Amino acid sequence: MKSLIALLAAATVASTAFAANTVEKLPSGVVVEHLKQGTGPQPTAEDIVRVNYRGTLANGTEFDSSAKHGGPATFPLGQVIPCWTQGVQKMRVGGKAKLTCPAATAYGDRAVGPIPPNSDLTFEVELIGIGK
């Protein structure tokens, strides 16, 4: 009987290790889907973060990426669109997430470069590091 309980416990641990990605919906409507859990610290809005990212429109068209700019981007987390400020604070260094940003948490009714007004945006973000 003990070995059966141990076997069931091991199976439960193994199945949770391969569970579906965790998804958080924030009060603002931002959705954070954790693709890979990080093990490092979580940033605050006052931190400077270093990330790799890829941004797409609702139709899947890529409008920007850190790769287009030669590698990781570094910026103050509190000085970007609200979706990023809110979503990246839910990540840990070493993690990857998909941020789904309602237009109100992105650029709202403003057109920015190739992004039309009132666009919902999606970002794949890898949090590489945090500074102050």
Automatic annotation (TrEMBL):
This is Peptidyl-prolyl cis-trans isomerase. Residues 46-131 form the PPIase FKBP-type domain. Residues 1-19 form the signal peptide. It catalyses: [protein]-peptidylproline (omega=180) = [protein]-peptidylproline (omega=0). Its EC number is 5.2.1.8. GO terms for molecular function: peptidyl-prolyl cis-trans isomerase activity. It comes from Paraburkholderia dinghuensis. SUPFAM superfamilies: FKBP-like (SSF54534). Belongs to the FKBP-type PPIase family. InterPro entries: PPIase_dom_sf (IPR046357), PPIase_FKBP_dom (IPR001179). PPIases accelerate the folding of proteins. Keywords: Isomerase, Rotamase, Signal.
